[in-house]
Amino acid sequence: MKRRVFTALMMALGSAITLRRPRIAEAAGPAPTFTFPGIDGSTIDSAEWRGKPALVVNTASLCGFTPQLEDMQALYESHAPKGLVVVAVPSDDFAQELDDAKKVKEFCTLQYGITLPMTDILHVKGKDAHPFYAWVKEQSGFQPGWNFNKILLGPDGNIVATWGSMTKPGSDAILSKVEPLLPRS
Q: Which stretches make up the Thioredoxin domain (predicted)?
């Protein structure tokens, strides 16, 4: 009897876990491109990422996961020369970002030496989500549930994988998906 209860519980738990995994839609064609306002007043255009994998991470300066900025910068430094794009998307959707872009840029530069591309402060969920995040949700069912969620786009611009806050940018889970997508030279 105990074994059947345990088995039923494990099957239910397994189903719950499966249901929470984001679904990645089969690409129905070329992925759209998006523009983002850069934190420094520039424009970041995802069309420039085509042919390269891109890791897009929603960030926040006052979050317990903020030290991942150091990992993001290290990943950028080690893999950008190989073709990886790493982009930080500051967001206050979880009430943990500084008041304005200038303060965010200053904090990230001084505390973590960030030189990777950063957008202005954007919404990543809900009705005001940036069109990129609305597209990601439509395509995969994934929307950031907290700060430092990661979205990997393939060289074709389509979603390859997503990860939550606990997965560090330089982790084996991410690198095992990124490295096969890097251009071969």
A: 25-183
